[in-house]
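Below is a filled-in request sheet from our internal design queue. Each sheet records the structural input a requester submitted and the sequence that came back. We keep these sheets so that new team members can see what a complete request looks like end to end.

REQUESTER: design group, bay 2
PRIORITY: normal
MODE: inverse folding
CHAIN LENGTH: 702
BACKBONE (tokenized):
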């Protein structure tokens, strides 16, 4: 039976129609979580009531720090005031507010019915601003609690970071932003660090690649592997001819989970939730965390997170991993993000194998001695329960977020690091193992590989902090190849080939595009079986290049690497094809473009470029007209100095000059977002209708 409609106050009116139709009852869920004492008795009604409330819309201002700050000021100074006195159907609609705990006020939330977004002119305008800025990657629509793990990861531009279960990529984007913290509003720094984002689901890795393209990074690689069995990445040991295993400074394990913390958004969970949902995931979660421990370098840090409230997927996983790997400890994060309301991790929990959630067991022994069906017993392990010495593990250092605390979803975060005392003594042993590993040829035959059990062996330290490599761990690869992974057996990605810096096509591209001598031309790669500079050129940083050159891309199921910066542009019949700078790659290459080659634009010219697809050069005001007419056909960069408070200064945009016309080389959505930002309205669509592709089409036909 659907819940009867309750008396509707303004706040209640904010629920969606869907919420009214869902029966927000599940006795199994209530019985199970009451037995876990996840919240004190007196908080239970508030907790349950919060689960039944519509989740506010939350978003984060993303992208490079400078762009984010400018956009954030626009929200604060332009949008919020215009949304502050909105009355819709007689009711006051509150404007967006900043999420108090998110650094620099860059995250926002608002809670308005969809009807208001559709019909209130002020909110409609704000909504389209959000939609377009989301499309171009300046805004990330993300649940507030999902923004937490990267904040606890504390990533710096030189860190080697792994995101083990990364798709669809909202946290990957946050990590990329942290790696690129030194970017400016117009140019992307090339961090010396690395982000290796992985997901076992191949379709989802493509979603991840699409999402990550919004912040183009030469430091990004995407792989499609089972994280619990992730193979070693081989890298040369600096100053020697040997190879070691790449170890990471930061690892995020945002593991697959039952997801009941998202019940306010995914209302189907009310109907389907079973107390045993988390039991089956526990083993995989432990294996992923253990693998992360083995991939972590000295002074490294792991963040383990789930959007589940279930201790079997949370504290039990952390406890089991800590017990297997005593050189790790939980980090006390209680003073980080002081405005975030949280609860400590549990030290007591009572798993169940009973579908109703009514019968729970304090210990594994009690469970084994119970009358529960033997087949159900076989599905549980001791690790589902709190260990005997649970008090020694500091589990209260884990962090639980409940919906009633700050009007969010439910979430769990634990931060782990190697204990200080464990680091030193292991170094000698590591050195020896490194020496053993260095005997391996690049692609060692299976029999010659080390006989270690990577997920269970004692944790390792790096041979030297500066190297951050450990001996190669071949058995993970062995497991990898033995097991027909769920990533799918066929791998159809193209190979990655670095062009020689003197490749004639690359040289001609560099020359024509006025790229300066400090451009890392030996880090340009192509993706086709022949290794030809045929269509697109990608830029990778040094560490990405080292990994690609020393690891079989099929073995690591490498799905993306670096960022696309140049693409071949067919220039019409009889004209030689040339490379152009891609809009999305421009921030990456702009530091290498000869400033003298950049054309100075003006706001009126920008307006013409946004409004029309292929405006004639003769239609532009002077001196822009004369400047562009004097330029050869091909790719050019224009700098538009914008002084208004609401816009970015020094907007750099790529254009293509044909015989008689110009084209702004950014996609439709980026054009709309730009138009809204600079001109306060989307003038690009109107232009599209008024100016069909006539000029360019004519040129193409000629
Ligand atoms: C909670 S989601 C990750 C969300 C992601 N971190 C984000 O913020 O957008 C869990 C992800 O784990 C992936 N996954 C499941 N099993 C995995 C495994 N064994 N290895 C790697 N990824 C796995 C799923 O495909 C899913 O994309």
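RETURNED SEQUENCE:
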């Amino acid at each position: 039976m659907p819940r009867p409609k309750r008396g509707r106050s303004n706040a209640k009116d904010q629920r969606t129609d869907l919420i009214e139709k869902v029966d927000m009852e599940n006795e199994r869920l209530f019985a199970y979580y009451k037995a876990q004492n996840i919240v004190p008795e007196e908080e239970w009604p508030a907790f349950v009531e919060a689960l039944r409330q519509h989740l506010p819309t939350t978003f984060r201002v993303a992208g490079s720090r400078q762009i984010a700050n400018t956009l954030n000021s626009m929200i604060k100074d332009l949008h919020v005031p215009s949304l502050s006195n909105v009355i819709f159907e007689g009711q006051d609609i509150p404007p967006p507010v900043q999420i108090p705990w998110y650094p620099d006020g860059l995250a926002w939330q608002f809670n308005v019915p969809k009807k208001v977004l559709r019909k209130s002119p002020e909110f409609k305008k704000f909504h389209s601003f959000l939609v377009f800025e989301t499309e171009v990657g300046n805004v990330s629509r993300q649940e507030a609690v999902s923004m937490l793990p990267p904040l606890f990861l504390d990533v710096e531009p030189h860190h080697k970071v792994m995101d083990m279960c990364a798709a669809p990529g909202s946290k990957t984007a946050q990590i990329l932003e942290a790696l690129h913290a030194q970017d400016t509003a117009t140019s992307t720094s090339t961090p010396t660090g690395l982000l290796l984002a992985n997901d076992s689901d191949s379709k989802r890795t493509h979603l991840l690649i699409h999402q990550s393209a919004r912040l183009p990074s030469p430091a990004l690689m995407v792989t499609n592997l089972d994280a619990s069995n992730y193979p070693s990445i081989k890298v040369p040991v600096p100053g020697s001819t040997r190879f070691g295993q790449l170890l990471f400074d930061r690892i995020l394990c945002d593991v697959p989970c039952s997801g009941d913390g998202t019940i306010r958004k995914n209302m189907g969970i009310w109907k389907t939730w079973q107390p045993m949902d988390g039991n089956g995931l526990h083993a995989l979660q432990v294996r992923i965390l253990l693998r992360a421990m083995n991939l972590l370098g000295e002074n490294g840090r792991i963040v383990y997170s789930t959007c589940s409230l279930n201790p079997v997927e949370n504290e039990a996983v952390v406890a089991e991993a800590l017990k297997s790997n005593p050189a790790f400890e939980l980090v006390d994060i209680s003073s980080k993000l002081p405005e975030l309301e949280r609860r400590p991790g549990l030290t007591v929990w009572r798993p169940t194998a009973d579908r109703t959630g009514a019968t729970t067991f304090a210990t594994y022994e009690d469970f084994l001695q119970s009358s529960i069906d033997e087949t159900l017993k076989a599905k549980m392990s001791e690790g589902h329960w709190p260990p005997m010495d649970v008090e020694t593990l500091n589990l209260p250092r884990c962090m639980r977020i409940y919906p009633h605390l700050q009007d969010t979803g439910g979430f769990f975060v634990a931060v782990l690091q190697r204990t200080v005392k464990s680091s030193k003594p292991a170094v000698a042993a590591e050195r020896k193992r490194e020496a053993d590993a260095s005997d391996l040829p690049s692609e060692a035959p299976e029999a010659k590989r080390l006989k270690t059990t990577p997920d269970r062996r004692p944790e390792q330290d790096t041979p030297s902090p500066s190297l951050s490599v450990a001996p190669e761990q071949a058995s993970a690869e062995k497991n990898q190849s033995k097991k027909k992974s769920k990533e799918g057996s066929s791998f159809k990605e193209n190979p990655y080939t670095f062009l020689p810096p003197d490749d004639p096509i690359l040289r001609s591209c560099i020359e024509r595009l006025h790229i300066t001598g400090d451009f890392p031309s030996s880090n340009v790669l192509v993706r086709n079986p022949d290794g030809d500079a045929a269509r697109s050129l990608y830029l990778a940083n040094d560490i990405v290049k080292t990994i690609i050159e020393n690891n079989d891309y099929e073995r690591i199921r490498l799905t993306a690497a670096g960022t696309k910066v140049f693409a071949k542009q067919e220039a019409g019949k009889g004209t030689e094809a040339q490379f152009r700078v891609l809009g999305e790659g421009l921030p990456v290459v702009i530091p290498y473009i000869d400033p003298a080659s950049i054309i100075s634009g003006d706001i009126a010219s920008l307006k013409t470029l946004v409004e029309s697809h292929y405006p004639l050069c003769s239609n532009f005001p002077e001196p822009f007209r004369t400047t562009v007419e004097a330029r050869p056909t091909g790719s050019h960069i224009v700098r538009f100095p914008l002084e208004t408070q609401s816009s970015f200064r020094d907007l750099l945009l790529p254009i293509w000059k044909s015989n008689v016309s110009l084209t702004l080389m950014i996609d439709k959505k980026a054009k709309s977002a730009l138009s809204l930002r600079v001109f306060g309205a989307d003038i690009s669509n109107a232009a599209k209708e008024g100016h069909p592709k006539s000029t360019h089409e004519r040129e193409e036909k000629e």
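SHEET NOTES:
- Residues 1-15, 424-467, 471-485, 690-702 have pLDDT under 50 and may be disordered.
- The chain is about 30% helix and 15% strand.
FILED BY: M.R.
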